[in-house]
Write a structure and sequence with these properties.
Elements (H helix, E strand, L loop, with lengths): L5 H8 L3 H19 L7 H18 L8 H12 L1
Length: about 80
């Protein structure tokens, strides 16, 4: 299978549950490493909460409003001033 970018997976996840599962799999190592910073008794609940937050973020993310490089640069420069 061809490796896809996160951007492509997010676009596909709106209509393809397997793309969403791929995103969860991509973030799983980071989630597991982060869970070691919490007490063992809370890890399973926190793991489920983090997965839910990833799903919500992916499904709510609007890729049509992502600014281009120069638009982003203008936004950053206006925030610095």
């Amino acid at each position: 299978m061809e490796e896809q970018s996160l951007y492509q997976l997010v676009n596909q996840s709106k209509s393809n549950p397997s793309a969403l599962m791929t995103i969860l799999d991509l973030f799983e190592p980071k989630v597991k490493r982060s869970l070691y910073q919490t007490e063992e008794r809370n890890r399973e609940d926190l793991h489920q909460d983090l997965q839910l937050k990833v799903v919500e973020a992916v499904l709510n993310y609007d890729t049509t409003t992502v600014p281009g490089f120069f638009d982003f640069q203008s936004q950053v420069e206006s925030n610095i001033s």
